[in-house]
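Continuing the batch. This is chain 6 of the set; chains 1 through 5 are on the previous pages. Same settings as before, nothing changed between runs. Recording input and output for traceability.
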Amino acid sequence: MIYMVEMALLDNARRAEWDAWYTSHQHRLLSIPGFRASQRFEAIHATSSPFVALHQVDSADIFAGPIYKTKPGPSNTGEWQAKMSNWHRNLFAMDRSPDVPADARLVVVEDGTPSTLGDHAPVQWMEAVGLDRSVRRRGLAVMPPAAADRLVGAPGVRVLKPIGPRLLS
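Output for chain 6:
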C-alpha cells in the first residue's frame, strides 16, 4: 500500500530546518514494523500542496497501532503541525511505491485526467482505501524531466522532483 502525505509549508524561512526534521521523521516511520520505504518530493511549479511524501506500508492496520500513534503519528509532529497547510493523508491500494531517481520526475495525476501522458509514460492508477480519502483515486508516473516538465500547467497534473532518495527500512 502507498501512504501518501501532501502539504504546504507555511514558514519557508525555516525550510532547511523543516527538511532536517522531516528526514528524521522518515527514519522514525521506517523504524515501525510494516513501513517499508519512504521518499519525499517537491512540486516544480505552484500548487496548493507542493510537498508530497510516499511511504510504502504493509497494511492499514499500522495506523491504528500503538507504535504509530506514540512515535511519528500526526499528533507527534510537534511545532511543525501548525506550520503546514493543505495537509492530506491518503492510503492507496498499490503494492510498491516507485523509486524515483534524482534525475527523474514523479508526475501525480488526478482522477479524470487521461490514463497516459502522451507516449512518455503510462500512469499507474491507485484507489484510495483509507485515512482521509480526500480523493477517490490518483495516478503516478515516473518520467524524465524533459517530458514531465512539459506537463507543468496541465489540468489535474503535478510535476514533482525528488527531495531525497527512496529510503528503505
